[in-house]
Amino acid sequence: MYPFKYHRPATVRQAANLLAKHEEARPIAGGHTLLPVMKQRLAAPPHLVDLSHIEGLGEIAMQGRALMIGAAATHAEVAGSATVQAAIPALAELAAEIGDPAVRHRGTIGGSLANNDPAADYPAAVLALGATIVTSKRRLKADQFFQGLFTTALDPDEIITKIMLPLPKKAAYCKFRNPASRYALVGVFVAKRPGDVRVAVTGAGADGVFRLSAAEAALQKRFHSKMLGGLHVAADGLTSDLHGSAAYRAHLIAVLTRRAVEAAQARPDKVAAQPAALEPVS
Amino acid sequence: MAKISLTVNGRAVTANVDPRTLLVQFLREQLRLTGSHVGCDTSQCGACVVHLDGKAVKSCTTLAVMADGHEVVTIEGLAPDGAALHPMQQAFYEHHGLQCGYCTPGMIMTAVDLVQRKGHELSEQTIRDELEGNLCRCTGYQNIVMAIAAGAKAMAPGGAA
C-alpha cells in the first residue's frame, strides 16, 4: 500500500470539504473494498478521509412511510435491525448474506452503493425498491444513481449520507452464489410496490445492475410467478466470463426472478410499517 | 505518523503508526502479538480475525488508525498470562480442531464471536455457514465444527467443556 495522509472529520461537511480540497482524496468507511484495492496498488489515493467518526451516520429509523438507513450502517447492523426486519424483511435478509460475518461487521451500505460493484447485492435492492440516495449535495433517485460498472452519479467530493427506502408491499431477493467466491453470480430483487412492480438484477449485467422491464410488465398485470411463464431473458448485454456464459446468466435470471416472486408471495401482505407488531425474520 | 491510543487485551496502548499500517501489522510487528496470522491478506481466509469492540473483524482489512479509541482483543487475550485456556480453545484442543494450526487463532476468534451473537446451542449448519470467512486448508472442517459446537456449550454459564 502506498502512503497517504489520513483525515478524521467529525461532520459530513468537514469530510466533503476535505474531499473537495484534496484532489484524488477518497472517503473510507468500513474499507472493505478500498483497502484491498489499495493493497493491490490498484488505487493510491494520497488522502483518505475516514467517515467512521461522524456521529449518527449509521442511524436506522422509520421516517414517515420510508425506511431510512444511514450510509455508515454496517451489513450486520442492517441485518440485525428490528426496524429493517419489520419494514423490509427482504433487505435484512439480503444484508445477512453479504460476504462473511467479519466482513458484515465492517462493510457499509453507503460504501457498497458508492462502489457499485457489478456483483454487489445492495444495488439490486436499492434499484428495485426505488430508493432515494441522499448525499451531502442532493437527493438522487436510484435510477439516476447507478451508471455502469463501478460508476455512479456521485461527484468525487460527494458523500452518501443516507438511503431512503419507500416500503414495498412485498419484496424478496434471490441470488445464485458463485460456489467458490460466494459472490452473486446472479441476484434478483423483486419489489411489489403500492403503484408498480420493479425487478432489478445484479451480477449479470455487463453495465452493472439493471431493471428487468419484461418481468416488470408481466408482474404488473398480476404479481404471481405464473405470469413469468413466457419470460425470455436475452443474453445480449450480459456478462460472460470464466464463471458463467451470458446465456447461463440469462437462464439464471429467469429462474431467480420466478423464485424471488414466489418468496415474496409467501410473505404476509403489508400495508404500513409497524415495527413492533411484526415478527422479526431471523 | 499518527498517534493512536487503544485498548489491546485489556491493556491501554499508545503508539505512533504510519497511517497505512494495517491493524494486523500493528498487532504483530509493533506489539509483538503474533497470534493473529496473515494468511491471504485479501480478507478471505480469516486467519487474522480479532475482536474490535467485541465484534469479529479481519485485521488485515482494517487500518490501525481506525482502531484508535477502540478495544481490540486478540487470541492472546482469551487466556491471558498463561491462565487456563478459554473454553473455546480447550474445545479445539480436545476435539483436535486443527492440524497445522495456522488458521486456528482466527477460527477461535470467529467462533467466540459466533457464540456471542447466536448463543450456545449451535447447529452444524449454522456453524458451517458462519465459517464462510475462515479457511482451513488442512482438515475438512469436521473437527473444527465439532470443536465449535462443544466450545459453545462450554461457554454457557456453568457449562462444562
In CATH terms, the superfamily of the largest domain in chain B is Beta-grasp domain
Total helical elements of chain A = 11
The secondary structure category of chain A is: alpha+beta
CATH topology label of the largest domain in chain A:
Uridine Diphospho-n-acetylenolpyruvylglucosamine Reductase, domain 3
CATH architecture of the largest domain in chain B: Roll
Q: Which stretches of chain A are low in confidence, meaning pLDDT under 50 for 5 or more residues running?
A: 272-282
Strand order of the largest sheet of chain A: 4-5-8-6-7
What are the secondary-structure elements of chain B, in order, as H or E? EEHEEEHHHH
Q: How many domains of chain A, as an integer? A: 2
Strand order of the largest sheet of chain B: 2-1-5-3-4
Sequence stretches where pLDDT stays below 50 over 5 or more residues of chain B = none
Order of helices and strands of chain A: EHEHEEEHHHHHHEEHEEEEEHH
